[in-house]
Amino acid sequence: MRQTIHIHPAAAPKPGWGEPCNGCGVCCAVEPCPVGMLLSRKRTGACVALSWSEVEGRYRCGVASEPERFVAPRWLAGLAARFALRMIAAGKGCDCDLTVEPQH
């Protein structure tokens, strides 16, 4: 099955399975993690918390980097950020097995 996703033109190419995350955004543009499913209210398509960082030149999980924007009440923000990091396997390497083909 083919799916077209739209990512920032400056986004890095998707790393290979197990390689360090480079913030390419492919995984979260295709489907949200469990936290993103709750926020996005959907199982497929881009997560509403997928955020492009101009400063870093990469995608970030908004729940992990700016939880107060996505979580209410605010006292839950820290817990939500830690949970989001666990759900996206932060620091564990790329776990997205999709094949990316550039648009012609």
Kindly describe this structure.
This protein is α+β, with helices and mostly antiparallel strands and 104 residues long. It is built from five helices and two strands, in the order H-H-E-E-H-H-H. It has a two-stranded antiparallel ribbon. Strand 1 and strand 2 form a beta hairpin. The longest helix is centred in the last third of the chain and has 11 residues, at 77-87. The radius of gyration is 13 Å and the shape is globular. 23% of the residues are buried. The model has no long low-confidence stretch (mean pLDDT 91).
State the gist of this model.
The protein is of the alpha+beta class. It has helices spanning 26-30, 34-40, 62-65, 67-70, 77-87; strands at 50-53, 58-61.
Largest β-sheet summary: 2 strands, antiparallel
Per DSSP, the total helix count is 5
Structural class: alpha+beta
Number of strands: 2
- What is the terminal separation in angstroms? 18 Å
Order of helices and strands: HHEEHHH
Helical fraction: 25-40%
Unreliable parts: none
Characteristic terms for this protein:
104 residues, alpha+beta, two-stranded antiparallel ribbon, 5 helices, globular
List the helices and strands and how they pair.
Elements lengths: L25 H5 L3 H7 L9 E4 L4 E4 H4 L1 H4 L6 H11 L17
Antiparallel strand pairs: 1-2
